[in-house]
Design a protein that fits this description.
The protein is mainly alpha-helical and 300 residues long. Helix content is 79%, strand content 0%. The longest helix is centred in the first third of the chain and has 28 residues, at 44-71. It is found in: Membrane. Keywords: Cell membrane, Membrane, Transmembrane, Transmembrane helix.
């Protein structure tokens, strides 16, 4: 029994469940931006489409982070020996099987919604693997590569109504910038970093918030969007300011965690701009669960 529990916990640790919840909210933001929620989820077909896209992002994100640990196994034996693969809880072969299964699940689930959704899912899988193997080692390519995965994930949600992609596809640049900012910070998580990098990331966060606020203003939802942006700013700035004062590894790790968890509030702000009140609250409801899971499972 202990062996089974240990294995299941190891697999969950590889998949970063707290992070997966943030990926699901990317999809919810995307379907709101597409206008899919304008008339609510009135029929079973609409609900099934949303569920399939949620399953797709679970598979794609989960598979991506599993392969991240696979490619980092040798380095983790030195820097993070407590992780599932270097600690021996999960073998490298078992991790590869899990990662392949999750990526295939993600792509197939996306194709059940439509061809465009399926091809976007393939692009996400490729972008994730490129980052895991090569992108993370490049100073400039790495942050963009990681951000691209999130930008494509937002497009995956928008693709529920493919005709909306030409109008709103450019909004994928916002999560690209947001995640690029987090990725810049995360590189100094183990050994500590520089205040300059943290300030640059703060600037990226500021642009992201301004763009979302502008969309809220254009949609006549300024007050509603402002509330969710206030939650976002609290989540990301509280640990970031602390890290600026003392850019040690642990403080930077908390800043990274705040940025990742903050994705839920960011996506709630998107939904607030494009959908009626119950929907952004439903997205924000993921926040306490993600915070709870982040205490039990690492987000980085």
């Amino acid at each position: 029994m202990n062996y089974i529990f240990s294995k299941l916990t190891g697999y969950l640790r590889l998949m970063r469940p707290a992070n997966i919840l943030t990926a699901i909210t990317d999809i919810m933001a995307g379907i709101a931006i597409a206008g899919f929620l304008a008339h609510g989820l009135a029929d079973v077909q609409a609900v099934l489409q949303v569920i399939c896209l949620a399953i797709a992002t679970i598979g794609l994100y989960g598979g991506g982070v599993v392969f991240n640990d696979i490619f980092d196994a040798a380095l983790d034996r030195v820097e993070r020996p407590e992780r599932p693969i270097p600690s021996g809880i999960i073998s490298k072969t078992e991790a590869v099987v899990l990662g392949v299964y999750l990526l295939l699940l993600g792509v197939l689930a996306a194709f059940t919604v439509g061809e465009i959704s399926g091809f976007i899912a393939i692009a996400i899988a490729i972008a994730a693997l490129v980052y895991d193997k090569w992108g993370k080692h490049h100073k400039l390519l790495g942050p963009f590569n990681m951000g691209l995965c999130r930008g494509l994930n937002l497009l995956l949600g928008i693709s529920i109504l493919p005709e909306s992609l030409p109008q709103y596809g450019w909004l994928a640049l916002v999560p690209i910038l947001y995640i690029a900012s987090i990725t810049m910070i995360s590189r100094d998580e183990v050994h500590g970093g520089k205040k300059q990098t943290l300030m640059l990331a703060a600037g990226g966060y500021g642009i992201v918030c301004a763009l979302i606020f502008w969309q809220g203003y254009m949609k006549g939802e300024t007050l509603k969007v402002s509330f969710y942006l206030a939650v976002l700013l609290y989540l990301i700035l509280t640990p970031l300011i602390k890290a600026m004062k003392a850019p040690t590894g642990p403080n930077i790790g908390k800043a990274v965690k705040g940025g990742i968890i903050g994705l839920i509030a960011m996506n709630a702000a998107w939904v607030a701009a494009f959908a009626v009140t119950p929907y952004p609250l439903a997205v924000l409801a993921f926040l306490p669960l993600s915070i709870l899971l982040s205490k039990a499972f690492s987000v980085t």
